[in-house]
Specification:
Layout: H1 2-23, H2 33-55, E1 56-57, E2 60-62, H3 65-84, H4 92-106, E3 115-116, H5 123-157, H6 161-164, H7 171-199, H8 209-232, H9 237-264
Antiparallel strand pairs: 1-2, 2-3
Helix pairs in contact: 1-2, 1-4, 2-3, 3-4, 3-5, 5-7, 5-9, 7-8, 8-9
């Protein structure tokens, strides 16, 4: 009952925060930061309590794909909300809050009980998982910045006066933050892969080879874009689409097989 209540509270306040930001998306003064922070803080705290109660159960730790997705989503929401305190993130907030609302409420209907009676903690494994999760979150945020950049750029090229006088951030600021996040995320992903190859066995084992290959493909795309931007000044629609493809590939690597095994096959 507690999990259901926390889920409803988190989803409700994420929806309220999304609605508030969207209602003043193109307003010159933008959404009220105070209202946005209050609504999102309640949602984030409820989301955090939901995670604690979902993962740490009386009969073990539930580390299912849904709970890992909830954790990843919570980190992204927390990061974007924190960034919005200093930099305008009017386009990003409704996206992350809206997705968080959908994910939290969906968690009630998706079977996700993978209980572990004990967790064997190894420093190398913890470092690899932590770096991988952090890299993924940062690269997903970079992808959102890429979408924001493309949206603003497209509206400006159409000479849309609404976006000129809106609260949306300047295009060059968005682009600079995009590549800063891309570079940081790519470096962290590189270190995560290196720690995996150096300290962990079985990176190319049958049950992990798809994850390793997809992660390497995503890493190659992210690295190529980052280097291409520095060396040749790559930017624009092609770069944004490439970042989205790399992010989708990395998502498949992290969540694809587990989603099939734990959710789809579990229904049959």
């Amino acid at each position: 009952m507690l999990i259901i209540s926390l889920t409803i509270i988190a989803s409700l306040f994420y929806v309220l925060a999304t609605s508030h930001v969207l209602s003043r998306l193109f307003h010159q003064q933008g959404p009220s930061q105070k209202v946005t922070i209050i609504l999102s803080t309640v949602a984030i705290l409820a989301h955090m309590l939901l995670l604690v109660n979902s993962v740490f159960r009386a009969d073990g730790q539930d580390l299912s794909i849904v709970n890992v997705a909830l954790l990843t989503c919570w980190i992204i929401v927390l990061c974007v909300t924190t960034v919005s305190l200093k930099f305008p993130a009017t386009l990003l907030l409704p996206v992350v809050y809206g997705f968080a609302a959908l994910l939290t409420i969906s968690s009630l209907f998706i079977p996700h009980h993978v209980l572990l009676q004990s967790i064997n903690v190894e420093l190398a494994l913890v470092a690899h998982i932590s770096l991988s999760l952090l890299a993924y979150c940062i690269l997903i945020i970079a992808t959102l910045y890429g979408v924001q950049f493309y949206f603003i750029d497209k509206r400006l090229k159409r000479k849309d006066l609404a976006i000129v006088h809106s609260h949306l951030p300047p295009l060059m600021v968005v682009e600079r933050q995009l590549y800063q996040l891309l570079n940081l995320g790519t470096v962290l992903l590189s270190v995560a892969l290196i720690t995996g190859f150096v300290f962990l066995d079985g990176m190319f084992a049958k049950e992990f080879i798809h994850k390793t290959i997809l992660s390497l493909v995503a890493w190659a795309i992210f690295t190529t874009i980052a280097v291409g931007h520095v060396k040749r000044g790559w930017r624009g629609k092609v770069v944004v689409v490439s970042i989205m493809i790399a992010a989708f590939t990395l998502t498949l690597a992290y969540f694809g097989s587990r989603f099939i095994q734990e959710v789809i096959l579990n229904k049959f």
